[in-house]
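Sequence in, structure out.
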Amino acid sequence: MKKEAIKKNSLAPKPNILVTCKGKDGRENALAVAYAGNCSYDPPMLMVGIVPSRFSYNLIKESGVMVVNIVTKDFAKEYKYLGTISGRDEDKLKDINTVKADLIDCPMLSDCPVNIEGTIVDSIMTGSHEMLIVKVEKVHANEELINEDGSIDFSKVDLL
């Protein structure tokens, strides 16, 4: 027997990600994102949903780029912090390990095992969120996660 469930967040599990960004003024930030996933494999693209009132939204819209950082359980404390505090109020990345992305002007979270550099190519308002369509420019992954064919073995990643 089945019972009707709530509609909100009905497609789960989903990856917990942190999106890093950098505004035209050089200000860097990170944002916890609940709505994200693949939306094309040729060319490789992601969809990332962001509420327009979030501080990072304007940074991303200005620059047109972002890094999607896959979060593991051992980064849970940082994930909670980065998803709770607004970048309007403080420099959230001051105590977080970052490196510059290779192809875009944006920080990556070096403690995350997978980082995806992307360029915004389109978007659609879907209600509470604007779904940003992100062309995958480069994928970085810890060496031990990469299979012989170059794919990532997510069974080896202790996802949050």
